[in-house]
Amino acid sequence: MMANFTEGSAPAVGSSAVGAEITRLTATVERLRDEIQRAHATADARALIELAKGVLIERLGCGPAQAARQLDVLSERVGSTRLEFAADLVNQAAKDEISAAVGEFPRHPKEPDNAVSVSLRVTESGVLAAGDTHRVAQAVLEHAVTPVGATVVAIWSAGNDGTLALRGYAGISRSEAERWHHVPPGVATLAGQALVKRDSLWITDLGAAGLPSIAGPAGGRAVIPIGLGGRLLGVLEVGWPHPIDVQPPQVRRQFEALADLCAHTLESDLVSESAPEEMSSAELIRLADNLFDSVLLLRPRLDVDGRLAGFRIDHVNPCFVDPLGRSRDLIQGAALLEAYPTSAGPGHLFERVEHVFVTGESYRADPVMLTELFGQVPQPVSAALSISRQGDAVFVVWRVQDEAARMPALLGHAQRLGGIGGFEENAATGEITWTSQLFTVYGLGSAAVPVPLAQLPLYVHESEYHAAQRFLRNLLRYRRAASAAFRLIRPDGTVRHVRVVAEPVLDVAGNLLAIRGVYQDASAQHWTEIALSATHDRLAHSEEQTAEQSRLARQLQQAIMPAARPSIEAFGLRMAVRYRPTEQDHLVGGDWYDVVVLPSKKILVSVGDIAGHGIAAATGMVVLRNALRGLAATGAGPGKMLTWLNLVAHNPADTIFATAICGVYDPATGVLCWARAGHLPPVLVRNGSAWALPTLGGMLLGAVSETRYEEAELQLEPDDVLLMYTDGLVERRGRSLDDCTQRLLTLSAGFAGSLDDRLDYLLDNSDADTDDDACVVGIHVGHTDAAP
Asked: ANTAR domain: from which residue to which, for each copy (predicted)?
């Protein structure tokens, strides 16, 4: 070529010439790239048209040439292009997920109605015609997601160990793809999270998600797991250069349909790259039969949509032992959940098997607890469990520790928990064998020399020396089984209470061969019995004290508050009292009543109730009752007397909590002045009607140091009956206090008789069930001319 240049026509070598050359080369590359893309698009479209021809051939029973002519005629008749009509024809014939999703994909207003159908079917054709996953990613980007604004497509494959490999990409540079070619396990990525959750992820803005991803760090992302036959093969990731809105459910289903398109090609890539070929069913069965552990060979059960619905027990090996004792014939061929319904639930066997099958990650646990039937008794047993996937099958292998291996461990635990140590002495050689627990009973190290049985008297308390000698004499001289209990003195001086049981081992001639027996450390039981005995003595003493206090409280109560006193008359008033103490001594209460004629010729009437029971309540009743009598001598009104009485109750050394009613009746005027301290108000019976007096303000006694009590006056009329009572007369469990008081008003209004009969009637008809004292004071107003 240099011979073609002459000196006068030498090419320019300046910067402008080099720039022009680069521009021409860049334009050539872009032109070739566009031609390649158009060629791919033309090929994808041609594949879709050929698929539509095949549908016509099958439906019309014609040849390829006639099908091509029919395609032109029909597309022209409906006013669409060959490609658009081919897409509609395939949709009608397929009735698949793409057909269902066609109407849900967003489209540009200027696009024809079937643009989405053409796009998806062309994508499908491109995927089917693609030779590798990388071409699939380009077809998805070009035909399916570019119309919705996406610019990046990545297809990941998932390894059994949690690794991710970039199998195909479009819309990113080669250097970016090389950087994300392999993602090791443990690295948090969007694709990894979708695999772990086994669900799609939709990220409106990658920058706010805080997770790295290909073609980051911002923009929207759709990450959809790729599955086939119930197994997870990888992930389809679609990216937008800008944040996206929250997508509706129908759009998410459309992208899941795209992931299904990628599944077959991705599976083909993975199969072609796997070095060893998968074992056949016969080889899997031979492998299971050669194992000495219990093996379940499971196969997936898929529903009509190809989703995982469960597992079938395809084979059980000859060494299989069913935990529930069933034969192999009853297990083989059954569904896993039908054979083992308890394997369902979070963290149980079915969930583990499903995870292994879907992800390919093996599972191993040692130990796990299984339930086996021994006879008809279910017993938990320890087993090692292994679950792995082989192709489309799942191996479930478990190894249960057999009874011979379990019994020594169980025996060791029983000896440790019971403080039991065994021994055997060879009579001929003198060899002594101890279990490890017996060294603990004697307080010796595991390397110490065992103590011969003949030396037992040297280790027991001196007061039990002869008892130990008798034990050895029965065992060694008379050749009889013997038992005894001793206080064993350890080398460090501590004392243990032990029980020894031993028996001689004789040959047929009666000669002594060996001595076998056990020691049991019963110290804990001994000291527990002593503690229980002491506790029993203390409880008996406490019961005696409680009974004595209850007896004294009852005597004090009966001495001051007799159950019934004869009615009295004074200044035109007739007054009667009824007191019904509780029948249980330990519930002796502090109800009190009092009727006193004061030096001023006025009459003090009071009723009260001490909080609590027992001797404290009885003595508190005496304190407040007597204090109120003394305060009444001052001539103060009821409110002032209760104020002073509250100071008596609020004693820092011994506070008394009580409710009370205090009334002072003036015979000259017939006026009752009264006040209350948290007590139920009196009841007035007049002319066949009964009602409770207004509730005056007044806090219960002893609650605070200083408080005031409201007073009220009541003009009593001839034949009025005034009732003061404690809550033990009316209160009933499960019923409001208002309802209880209303019943008392009804009983009081409906009775016509003497005052004494009235009070007896109220006590006899009381339905109170609180096991509390009941007290009622009745005042009947006579004629006014009886007053002084």
From this structure: 29-90
Task: Return the CATH number at 318.
Answer: 3.30.450.20
**Are 132 and 164 in the same domain?**
yes
Place of tokens 């552990």: 293
- Secondary structure (3-state) at 636: coil
What is the spatial distance between Cα 196 and Cα 131, in angstroms, rounded to a whole number?
29
Residues 204, 240: Cα–Cα separation, whole Å: 9
In terms of DSSP H, where are the helices of 581-698? 615-632, 638-649
Rounded Cα distance, 471 and 462, in Å: 15
Min mean pLDDT across 292-306, 520-534, 706-720 is at 520-534
How many of the other CB atoms lie within 10 Å of CB of 70?
17
Distance between CA atoms of residues 279 and 275, nearest Å? 12
**In the structure encoding, which two tokens stand for residue 229, read together?**
């036959």
CA atoms within 13 A on the CB side of 105: 31
Q: What is the DSSP letter of 162?
A: S
Report pLDDT digits (tens) over 646-661.
999 988 778 889 999 9
Structural contact between residues 318 and 293, judged by C-beta atoms closer than 8 angstroms: no
Q: CA separation (Å) from 515 to 20, 424, 454, 475?
A: 111, 6, 11, 8
Residue 666 exposure: Cα atoms within 13 Å on the Cβ side: 11
Strand segments, DSSP code E, in 147-302 are 152-158, 164-170, 182-183, 201-203, 221-228, 231-239, 294-302
Which helix H or strand E contains 119, and what residues bound it?
Answer: helix 115-129
Mean per-residue pLDDT of the chain: 78
What is the C-alpha to C-alpha distance for residues 203 and 247, in angstroms, rounded to an integer?
Answer: 10
* Residue 89 pLDDT level (bands cut at 50, 70, 90): low
Is residue 476 over pLDDT 90? no
Distance CA 384, CA 127 (A): 45
Tokens of 44: 């994808």
**Nearest Cα to 554, choosing from 564, 543, 563?**
563
Q: Is residue 744 part of a domain?
A: yes
Where is mean pLDDT largest: 346-355, 461-470, 554-563? 461-470
**Is residue 640 over pLDDT 90?**
yes
For residue 429, the enclosing domain spans 408-521
213 and 70 in one domain?
yes
CA distances 509 to 429, 478, 506, 531, 784, Å, are 19, 15, 8, 50, 117
Do 238 and 316 share a domain, yes or no? no
Residue where a domain stops, chosen among 401, 435, 466: 401
Phi and psi based region of residue 564 (left: phi greater than 0; alpha: psi -120 to 50; beta: remaining): beta
Other Cβ atoms within 10 Å of 283 Cβ, number: 13
Last residue of a domain, one of 217, 246, 273: 273
pLDDT digits (tens, 9 = 90+) for 591-635: 888 888 888 889 999 999 888 777 777 778 888 988 998 899 898
Where residue 314 falls (left for φ over 0; alpha for ψ -120 to 50; beta otherwise) is: alpha
Inside any domain, residue 353:
yes
Position 638 pLDDT exceeds 90: yes
Q: Are 373 and 381 in contact (CB under 8 A)?
A: no
**What strand order describes the sheet that includes 363-374?**
308-316, 294-302, 393-400, 377-390, 363-374
**Residues 396 and 437 reside in one and the same domain:** no
Helix (H, G, I), strand (E, B) or coil at 329: helix
At 86, which helix (H) or strand (E)?
Answer: helix 82-94
Residues 177 and 35 in one domain: yes
CA-based diameter of the chain, in Å? 162
In this structure, are 453 and 565 located in the same domain? no
pTM of the model: 0.39
| pLDDT > 90 in the chain, percent | 17
Using the structure block, give the residue that is written with the tokens 């072609």. 272
> How many structural domains are present in the chain?
4
Whole-angstrom Cα distance, residue 205 to residue 216?
10
Per-residue tokens: 141: 């980007």
